[in-house]
Protein 1
Amino acid sequence: MTDEQATGPPAEESAEIGELQARVAELEDQWRRALADFDNLRKRVARESATQRDAERARVAGLWLPVVDNLDLALEHAADDPSAIVEGVRAVRKQALDVLAKLGFPQRSDVGEPFDPTLHEAVAVVSVPDTAAGTIVQVVRPGYGDGEHLLRPTAVVVAKGD
Amino acid sequence: MTDEQATGPPAEESAEIGELQARVAELEDQWRRALADFDNLRKRVARESATQRDAERARVAGLWLPVVDNLDLALEHAADDPSAIVEGVRAVRKQALDVLAKLGFPQRSDVGEPFDPTLHEAVAVVSVPDTAAGTIVQVVRPGYGDGEHLLRPTAVVVAKGD
């Protein structure tokens, strides 16, 4: 019994030390791998962020090429038939508005709407009979986009109170 | 001596167990924090990636607004003076090419250059006296960008060998 008491605990403790040392080695390995994963993700993100921005720039620029092509065509045809250019340019303008709408920035139509400082920029206030104060009576420069994604506010003339 | 041999090691081993347990707790904590950092970075990246793409889309779209504004102006003035529109539209076209160049996609000028399949798209091959085979003799549709960032290849007519 005395022998067992003397040697028993050390044997158990040695085993426990062995287990703990193994656990330490395992955790050190897991920790190091987690740090490496983090670092790799950080590097990948820096690389991909620039790539994605470039890709989006090229995508959006590419959508405008048909507009530029049609401007070229309108100008070429103008040499033969100057009166045809107005129709051609109207079509190009329509196409440009379609591109903006496709990108999430449709042209706003604000006439008759109440003035909203988050969407509109008042350039003048005028007296208009039978019109509620703050009603938009004229668009001076069109705005594009909506409340969530406003590309440019509409420059407007607003009715003064009667 | 027998006593020392029996009790000495256990005391030392107990101390070692205590140290190892503390090391295990510390490593578990560091590992957990590294995992949490990784997860947070992953989530932040997903969020910011969409935000950055949106921002780049809006930035590029915004560069085209003056072009659209000037198309509008050219059309407005056309009503008063139809002949003025050609000059106006030429200016708008120049402005559009400036926007493309600013985005990193200048219009290419390829006439006289040797055909390069990474930059050009041959739409026809013609016999041209005194011109080396493979020389670009005409641009059918302009290309934009350079070798590194080509937005669109130039559609060209190429000289056949004599």
Protein 2
Amino acid sequence: MAATRPRTTTPEGREQRDRILRAALELFTAHGFRGASLDAVAAAVGISRQGVLHYFPSKTHLLLGVLDLRDELSAARAEERARAGNWDLAEGLLDVVSHNQREPDLTRLFTVLAAEGVAPEHPGHERFQERYRHVRTVLTQAAREAQESGRFRADIDPAIVATLLAAVMDGLQLQFLLDPEAVDMVEPLAQLLKLLGGEQ
Amino acid sequence: MAATRPRTTTPEGREQRDRILRAALELFTAHGFRGASLDAVAAAVGISRQGVLHYFPSKTHLLLGVLDLRDELSAARAEERARAGNWDLAEGLLDVVSHNQREPDLTRLFTVLAAEGVAPEHPGHERFQERYRHVRTVLTQAAREAQESGRFRADIDPAIVATLLAAVMDGLQLQFLLDPEAVDMVEPLAQLLKLLGGEQ
């Protein structure tokens, strides 16, 4: 299921779709997926429920759109840092994890949906499969660059580094969400990054 | 919810409970949680549905019991290796991961339930919270021993090593289950273990 397939071709339509997604992102974060209704999203945008369904034919579609938006916002933050000239892979990932730790509701939403998405019949299955392929591709390229510039040790296949980094971030989220008082996500990731940096 | 609270005090009762769990483990693995009914579990043991419900008041209770059993079997395999005198932490974890890669159905069941369990109102929430506390405690102790014997580099807090190892294993499962053709779990874990071993 392609959550991002536009149901509109006009700039006004795209803007409306964007307003709905941002309202949904805010409401899902505040009240959870189950706690935020399509009616509440519609009310926040000032349109009818039918108006929301025109862009997103079900609440699941809306949710997948929100998850895409979340990824886009993360990518935009990373690019902003890159433009500021001080971005590197390690800092970028630590920033994502700190951000997720401060936004447990949306992180929880993502964790549950990604896990449910492992079932081939789940409406989000392909979306998550593609998402992780994309994440691995981006991280592999970033790891290769970090190796070439000497920031990462160069004796590990960058594709393995990518799989490992994505895995640690997801696994830390699970432990953190189950036990937020006991688990900090930043320090273990920082430690892995130090190991990948070849610190003796 | 304590899935393991015995509803029986006699040896016969414990044996019956154990037979139900093993039948459920087999059926859930073959047909998934949704695909295997309480009736099918009862039929496999040769008792009535009511007989199953005497030990496990709901299908969720039965599932939590199965997950406990899965952890116990993993622990038993580790102990068997330890008795054979050739166990170490790295080998033990690689063995668990290879095993999970060969049993994707039960691994999927565990991954989905653990993620759903992050919601405080989920019937398995406390069970998974306790499970991860236990896993971190066991892994922390094992990491400390590996550091003391020189198999792991000693400059990382063993509690951080434990959190990291558990996280990588869970995150690898998610990627593997979404995309079993593209993702191998063993090699990335082996790589992390090499880094923790201080290989230059």
